[in-house]
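Thread: quick sanity check before group meeting

JM: Hey all, I'm pulling together slides for Thursday and realized we never actually wrote out the predicted structure for the chain we discussed last week. Dropping the sequence here so it's in one place. If anyone has concerns about the input, flag it before I start.
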Amino acid sequence: MSPASRPIGSPGGRIVSHLTPIAPILQTARSGSGLGSVAKKKRNFDPHAFLATIGEGRKSLLFQKNRGIFAQGDTADAVFYIQTGKIKLTVVSKTGKEATIGILGEGDFFGEGSIAGQPLRMGSATAMTDCAILRIDKKAMMEALHREKEFSDLFVAYLLSRNIRYEEDLVDQLFNSSEKRLARILLLLAHFGKEGIPETVVPKISQEMLAEMIGTTRSRVSFFMNRFRKLGFIHYNGGLQVHSSLLNVVLHD
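JM (edit): ok, ran it. Output follows.
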């Protein structure tokens, strides 16, 4: 597993946050970089339509909520594309500790390590909601990338944006407080900074999972969530609604 995707514990020493780059979520909001740039490319090229043209090696699959898609250690022989729903990516250490390293939704790829020579899955993928997913064999994916330049450009842009996100997560873990890390994760889950109106965070994400994602305890997450709610940054109304005002926590030194 690359350093960028490896779960990282809280740093031993306290580092003053104003010595670090402004939280990456601000850059995404201002410049439209990261995953937002991929959305712009999608307007000029429809991956749904193109992927539907792939013949042999493509299979549409339906997964019910909490169903495993692949497990850590499985043979890495395909790439997956999310048509509808949300999935989570997790890794388990040798001591049995599990960490959530990503939550993906419609229009995202995952399992791409298979086309980079990864023989076995380095983590697991599980459906968080009912999902419709396209499974593309490694060979078929490679042929599609070589055949269709626009699709290749889109896929490369997506991989670069994911790599940037992993680097931002690393910086976030090393330099920012757990409160800022939680605020950033909530903003990302609400698609803040992407095109369109920020959405309610769906599906419901447990405080335990949020604690795993930011490298802190559930009790700390509960404390900060209550503070965010009292300040009006979030509220519960059949789901967790995240307001853009939560950005104040990310920007505050």
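AS: nice. DSSP finds nine helices and ten strands in the chain. The chain has two domains: 32-176, 177-253.
JM: adding both to the slides.
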